[in-house]
Amino acid sequence: MSPAGGALVALLALLAAALTGLYRRRRDGRVLPSGRASADAAPSQQSQALVALGVSPGRTTLVQFSSAFCAPCRVARRVCADVAAAMDVAHLEVDAESHLDEVRRLGIWRTPTVLVVDPAGRVTHRVTGPPARAELLAAIA
Fold first, then answer.
1. Second-level CATH architecture of 30-140
2. Distance between CA atoms of 48 and 94, rounded to whole angstroms?
3. How do residues 119-137 score in pLDDT, each as one tens digit?
4. Of residues 138, 73, 80, the one with CA closest to residue 112
């Protein structure tokens, strides 16, 4: 490969990395309505997965999926605990590595991911990355 061809490949790789970074920064921490689930997960499978994780119906619950060495997970834990105390909702932190079947059924792709589960046991909102406190409060209210 010529030096000009190598420089072009490096430039394209740099551009792809920058665009990916911008996309993730725009989406991380945003509370989005949960209209999408895992492509192969029916609502009953989602309910079964949530019950298996310890989510009890009748109370709004923040379900946070974390992993052991995830620095943003610590930020998400603090925000979720603060919001749970302020809004009198439950906060359940789940080790994603220990619950792979449930993670797959719920369509969790990375940590931290926070699901807002309503008292009927339905996932109403989903946050990928550390959640913004104000948006999480609005989603619960």
1. 3-Layer(aba) Sandwich (3.40)
2. 15
3. 998 999 999 999 999 999 9
4. 73
